[in-house]
Request: fold
Amino acid sequence: MKLVKKNQKLHNPGSPLLIGDVNDTDVVKEITEPSYIDAQTRLLI
Reply:
């Protein structure tokens, strides 16, 4: 429970991350990831 409260304090609504911010030392890479939601929808049709 302590970790949850600590992470809640790190939340920044203006950040693209769920918890915390992007720092100068962070490496951000853009990747292409297929959507698995589309595959699940096609199974039901």
Summary: Helices lie at 2-10, 36-44. The chain has a mean pLDDT of 81.
